[in-house]
Amino acid sequence: MQRPPARERLLRAADRLLFDRGIRATPVDELLREADVAAATLYAHFGTKDGLVAAALEARADAWRRVWDRHIVEAADDAERLLAIFDALADYRTGVGGAARWCAFLAASAELRDAAEPIAAALAEDTALLGERLLALARPIAGDRAPELADAVLLAYTGTLAGFLRGSPKDPVAVGRRVAAAAIAAAEPLSPRA
Amino acid sequence: MQRPPARERLLRAADRLLFDRGIRATPVDELLREADVAAATLYAHFGTKDGLVAAALEARADAWRRVWDRHIVEAADDAERLLAIFDALADYRTGVGGAARWCAFLAASAELRDAAEPIAAALAEDTALLGERLLALARPIAGDRAPELADAVLLAYTGTLAGFLRGSPKDPVAVGRRVAAAAIAAAEPLSPRA
DNA sequence: GTCTATAAGCGGATAGAC
DNA sequence: GTCTATCCGCTTATAGAC
Questions:
Q1: If residue A66 lies in a helix (H) or strand (E), which one and from where to where?
Q2: What's the pLDDT at A1?
């Protein structure tokens, strides 16, 4: 039973505390205690608290992308592939991303008005990945109107995440998926039951 | 040209700074400077910074409710009444609520993990008002399935707000309205063009 | 050479005293 | 209305342990 190195322990502690309690609400001291690491070690590895935050966000982005990938591959048809983001989200939240209250990236955006460079980059990457992927997945369904469909699904996904923050509706993933499905139905150039 | 009393100046300064730059990111000193008020005056009126935050949130809730009211009354039919929340939002954001980055209530939720009592109450009230009203407005459209339709519209509305935070899609209100309209179409027991 | 323990500097924020 | 006591959070310095 090897103990992971300090860097790894710090990242895990950051993921557990930062995105559950909040970034500003979590003092460095608590991160150090949770990780059982000395202050000097944190600053040697990450430079500043912001550096650790950015590294934790990037780790989260990687984990999320992998889960989403898997659900896209496993989906049965075009519509299911576009909706796979919701199944991936449900999966992610009960698995690797369990600690987060809603969405680590949106929460960081909300908390840090003008995020420092490494953090801002992580946030922008998340939204860029969502936009690009959803657009590609919407193309076979909506053709020329794929941008509108992708926007609709992005909004439903974002609404699902913020639904966790609001505490309503009760099951944001289920509602978000239904809403996105309705947007797909409205966007299909062919009649729904053709 | 009378100068408003200190209490009023504080509330205005709070509304302008708190919900634009963030609650934790705005020091009391800045509120005092913006309002041109002495520290003692703030603590005499509101007790603590939290007290001022809660009062500013309540003022915002009142203003929002009035704008929403007006758009519901002016709407032409059942569907338009349910969608009026989006027109109200567009109106609100260019008017009284202009300063806020996305949504004062969700932002406060995100920033303050365990909000103190007066703040938590304001947040809960906002979500309760949304839930009750949307349900009542969904009833004539969806009948027994009104709860599901109300959930869908709430999620689209929440997604619109969080869309401003994310910076995508470009025009969250337009996309949110379209998404909600698709949910209405899917929920109508009668065929859409009957 | 990586990590730990301790302590202390320093800016900033809240709250209340005067 | 000003002024200040007090606290808190981030960061670094120093010295030593595995």
A1: helix A49-74
A2: 63
